Amino acid sequence: MHITWKTVDEWREERGMEKAELARRANVSERTIYNGLSKNSRLQPSTKSNIRSIFPDKFDDRGEVRQ
User: Fold this and answer.
1) Does residue 66 lie in a domain region?
2) Which residues have CB under 8 Å from 26's CB, separation 6+?
3) How many other C-beta atoms lie within 10 A of the C-beta of residue 17?
4) In which residue ranges is the amino acid composition biased (Polar residues) (predicted)?
């Protein structure tokens, strides 16, 4: 399953995390997050692995998003 920035933004809000903090921890620019949200684009594979390390509870053992 593909993961989009809107999904990641929902997870960020659940944790009460600022977008700037998410950008810093995911090693992307804040502008990348804003652009991804406006277009609801998919995450690149390298960014997805960074997001997986930030939100490990949202992924299963195979690295797929839990429903």
Assistant:
1) no
2) 47, 50, 51, 54
3) 15
4) 39-52
Q: Which residues contact 22 (CB under 8 A, 6 or more apart)?
A: 8, 12, 33, 54
Containing structural domain, residue 32: 5-58
Q: What is the CATH number of the domain that holds 43?
A: 1.10.260
pLDDT for 44: 92
- The helix-helix angle for 5-15 and 30-39 (nearest 10°) equals 120
In a domain, 13, yes or no: yes
Q: What is the pLDDT of residues 33-59, one digit of tens each?
A: 999 999 989 999 899 999 999 999 988
Residue 21 lies in a domain: yes
Tokens of 45: 């594979």
- Tell me phi and psi for residue 4, to 5 degrees: -110, 165
